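Retro notes
What went well: the complex prediction finally ran end to end.
Inputs used:
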Amino acid sequence: MSTTELGMPGSHGLADVPLAEGPQTAKDYRSDQEVRWCPGCGDYAVLAAVQSFLPDLGLRRENIVFISGIGCSSRFPYYLDTYGIHSVHGRAPTLATGLAVTRPDLSVWVVTGDGDALSIGGNHLIHALRRNVNLKILLFNNRIYGLTKGQYSPTSEPGKVTKSTPLGSVDHPFNPVSLALGAEATFVARALDSDRAQLTEVLRAAADHRGTALVEIYQNCPVFNDGAFDAVKDPRERVQRIIPLRDGEPVRFGAEGEYGVTRDPRTGGLRVAPVAETGEDALVVHDAAAGDPTQAFALSRLDSGDHGPVVPVGVFRAARRPTYDDLVRQQAGRSGGDSTLRDLLRGRDAWTVEPHRRNTP
Amino acid sequence: MTYVIAQPCVDVKDRACVEECPVDCIYEGERMLYIHPEECVDCGACEPVCPVEAIFYAEDVPPEWAAFTDAGEVFFTTLGSPGGAAGTGPISADAPLVAEFPAPAH
């Protein structure tokens, strides 16, 4: 992946995080807590993938922190033998921002869901993404509020019948990848809970990225929204539905790579077409590191297109931009640190209210 | 720790669990189904759907079937981690414990 160096501090997401002394295994990351989600929950698969991927990073466990909000997925920190905070609904990115700024020696992760991240914490999410703080956000998207027993969420499909929408939801859903790209995120990816190899690849890329990384994980809720992603998980169907994004390669899919993604002159966006019709030269080439996120955004819209359910997965964007936490630390270093802050806090009043004086002749 | 399949599955292979497994980690052997100990994510979806109650959390395998606790591990030593039962298909082999199990009387 080619990137443009802009003379920024650090280059790797984990550059300042100390390494463990010896090799680790997945077992080292299992806590003594009994894992409690519903049988068959996709969260188990994500937890297993994370527990087997963290040893590959080889970091000191006491320098890793997982911060969650509220929801089923937010039980995550209990089950990992790292530091963890089960925080405030939708506000995990705020705690994570504070930690990432003050502790560059930590690998900071946020675990959230479609409701926690996109509804309750929608503002915190977009501003963390825009600021490009060195933290990694795992957004478990099951398209439902599961913990509260099944109300439609900001990613539920229109017409969704739930206990809170007995006649069907009239809301239009968010596409989390499009939202993140629109919020100027420098790293955006999508993975499936059931594909451990692909999920692990994306997690690794997110960890390596210096800046805010958003990973949307399609996660099945077997109790309140079972089968939400069956169209892209069915062993026979998925090859026709999943578009694997590979940096530097033409975007194509299908058992024989018979479908491709080309520019749509009518809309200015992208569309899916048989390669036999378009020719190989017409296929767009994926460039995750591109400074301009326009093509990544267009790729994220393919699953909303008129060509049936297709879903691009992998890294949509991995671009370089100075991180908020690096810049804050630089600025704090330049300004003289604590003494300047003290002067500011204890200095003269910047503005005072004078008592009213009556004009007397 | 992981879920394991015990003796009641031998020569039954109902496969209801295969349908239920969200990560496709239940493989078909010659006489029994096997849960892949590394691919299993411990979600427990398979346990209640087994019609012959053959699936247990490894710690909870009844003592009379304790030998089956490691059967999966033994079964997959040569196979490794194929990363999905659907793509692998039925395997014409069994763990020695299962292969040597007396055939049902007909």
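What we learned: Helices of chain B lie at 16-20, 46-49, 71-75, 85-88, 96-99.
What to try next: split runs per interface for comparison.
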